[in-house]
Amino acid sequence: MIDPHLVWPHVTHIVQLMYFMLPAYLANMTPPFVRFWKGWNRPISRRCLGDHKTVVGFISGMSVALAVVFLQSRVRWRGDLLPYARWPLLGLAFGFGAMSGDSVKSLFKRLCKIRPGQSWIPMDQLDFVVGALILVSPWVPLTCLEVLVILVISFAGDIAINHLSYALGIRTTQW
User: pTM score, two decimals?
Assistant: First the structure.
């Protein structure tokens, strides 16, 4: 039988890792909600990234990450992984990392002649996570095991969220 006293600390740490990644997760989920904004919502680069990567989507993702890190800095949780005294830098790192990771993946997808909306596993699920982890790494040294846990849970969670968003009509593709 599994001893709950041995399992509970691991479950708690996994929850802490997901809480740590919340700014990147929410930043990545934001752009589909602003795709209908007309006018200033222009593509970043039609030729390099396609029509669906927009200025407003990028900025809104960064803004959401910044707001989430600010809120996390006000809601202290025992075992927080972030040095919240630097919340503006961390928020920008999470937001810019997540949005840049997604944009770089779109560039490579285009260079590989993969159509927008066509599945590219695991890149479609992990692009924003890797971008965010790279940019916050100077402030939060994670172990290789922690990074692996984040990647595995993010991969599964992204697939589930994207399928739900597609079913609800929020996203135009499942990926």
Answer: 0.86
Residue length of the chain:
175
Pair 94, 64: CB distance under 8 Å: no
Query: Token pair of 149, please?
Result: 């846990």
User: And the tokens for 102?
Assistant: 């997604």
**72: its two tokens:** 């996390």
* pLDDT tens sequence across 79-108: 666 777 888 999 999 999 999 999 898 889
Domain ranges of the chain: 4-167
- 166's tokens: 């597609």
- Give the span between the Cα atoms of 118 and 34, in whole angstroms: 21
Residue type, 10: H
Of the candidates 8, 28, 16, which has an alpha carbon nearest to the alpha carbon of residue 140?
Answer: 16
The values of phi and psi at residue 78, to 5°, are -60, 125
Question: DSSP of 45-111, one letter per residue?
Answer: -HHHH-SSSBHHHHHHHHHHHHHHHHHHHHS--TT--S-GGGHHHHHHHHHHHHHHHHHHHHHHHHH
d(CA 82, CA 48): 34
- Measured CA to CA, the distance from residue 67 to residue 175 in angstroms comes to 25
Q: List the one residue out of 52, 54, 22 whose CA is nearest residue 40.
A: 54
Sign of CA dihedral 62, 68, 74, 76: negative
Tokens of 35: 């795709």
